[in-house]
Amino acid sequence: MSEAVREAPKKERPKFTNIHVTELSNYRMPLAAIVSILHRISGVLMFVLLPFVLYLLQNSLRSEISFAYYEGFVTYPLVKLIILALVWGFFHHFCAGVRHLVMDLHIGLDKDSARKSSATVLVISLVLTALVALKLFGVF
């Protein structure tokens, strides 16, 4: 080996550490990671709100008077927002689940296709949620 090769300054290798909670704002996640995290959040949201929905359904089916009571209960804005959160959770979880099923078939695994499919999941779930919100809040 020549003298110049032996004496070449060595670059320090980058040090990779786990991301701390305080560093999350500096870390830019890809869109596919955001969709994956939202898929998990929507699943938890549906799981947590399921008893609320089943309680409303059970009590609304008891009689016509209880149905009229809960029909009025659903008109409150806070309840509408809870219903809208559940609707978003369902639509997002469904669309992301279909995306994952397609990826299980080894379709769309490359970086560009994954980015496009994750953007499609976000757009479709938000558009469907917006349509339900317009209907829920009486626009049409």
From TrEMBL:
Transmembrane helix is among the record's keywords: yes
Classification via SUPFAM superfamilies: Fumarate reductase respiratory complex transmembrane subunits
A biological process term (GO) from this entry: tricarboxylic acid cycle
Pfam family, one: Sdh_cyt
Main localization, broad class: membrane
Record's subunit section: Part of an enzyme complex containing four subunits: a flavoprotein, an iron-sulfur protein, plus two membrane-anchoring proteins, SdhC and SdhD. The complex can form homotrimers.
Molecular function as annotated in GO: electron transfer activity; metal ion binding
Cofactor: heme
Coiled coil regions in record: none
Name under which the protein is recorded: Succinate dehydrogenase cytochrome b556 subunit
